[in-house]
Amino acid sequence: MRFLRPLDRYVSNEFWKIFIAFAVGFPVLVVVIDLTDNLDKYLNRNLPMKQIAMSYLYWIPDSMFMALPAAVLFATVFSIGGFTRHAEITAAKASGISFHRLVRPIFISAAVVSIIALGLGELVPITNRRRAELLEERKFGDDDNRYNFAYAAENGRVYKVQTLSLERGELDQIEIERKGNGPSYPSYLLTAAVGSWDSVKTRWTLRTGEIHIIPDSTTDIVVSYDSLRDNLLEEGPHDLLATARDPAEMRYRELERYITALERSGGDANELRVEKALKIAVPITCIIIAIFGAPLATSTQRGGAAYGIGVSLATTILFLMLIQITKAVGGGGLLPPVIAAWIPNLVFGFLGLAFLVKTRT
Fold this sequence. Notes:
Blueprint (H helix, E strand, L loop, with lengths): L5 H39 L4 H37 L2 H7 L4 H4 L1 H31 L10 E8 L4 E9 L4 E9 L8 E12 L4 E12 L6 E10 L6 H5 L10 H13 L5 H28 L6 H28 L5 H22 L3
Antiparallel strand pairs: 1-2, 2-3, 3-4, 4-5, 5-6
Helix pairs in contact: 1-2, 1-5, 2-5, 2-8, 2-9, 5-8, 7-8, 8-9, 8-10, 9-10
């Protein structure tokens, strides 16, 4: 295989040494800073040190996920910058090896990192949920009630609730509406004064209400009841409490289902659609940022390591700022969410290809 040639292995090894150092070092730094800021809060919750330590272990995938593009950039700039300073690029060109051919292993390595990032992005929601459990975030939330909200469940059912009490595990003044398509699958409206959660059997029991069955536009069948079991709503009080779930705690498919449910409830899901698109865009950034950084790194000989650090930090900050701006633009509906999420990649990809074409080979 051509990729296993000695030069390719040498270039790849230089890239991976720097990449691993940054990809591992950055999460450790973030953990230390966060632990310093929040240790008193966790100790006031009477959390054991072992539990706190495990929560930070589960947080490493999340802190590493956003650091991967920056790690690729640093590895690209410093590895190519080293080749430039030691005249290895000049020697390669003298041997008939173009710059584009020389950096090919770096682009391939960046593509491998993108695949790793895609897998890590699906792991992060699982570890974030586990971390929230260890830190007992829900137990120490600010409010145990939710008022006047709608929730779109499966099978086209929409729940409208006046009050949710987490302490009592109850819903007050409930309406459940399901749209049908004819007599064989009729629409219905179910009302209940109270809904109680059974934490053992994990189901809701509704009490004192009526069911309006509407098989067509002219018929309305009304049935009163004292109590009935709702076996279709599997979400408990904790699941219904939050006004919006954190995208960081949802995998791609879960986020997609949640967006659908939120839009069925009449909510605005633009911000969540941007977050969903970013779950794909951020891993692809690893390839884009390598293309952008490779031609810039050839000029690091002007200022040595300091120039390389400056280029990497400036690019990282600019990229993160652009992501925040496009998230706001997409969330506000000024641009389609998917386009807004991909704007940073399009901008840096275009600039990177332009720089790469102009680089002397």
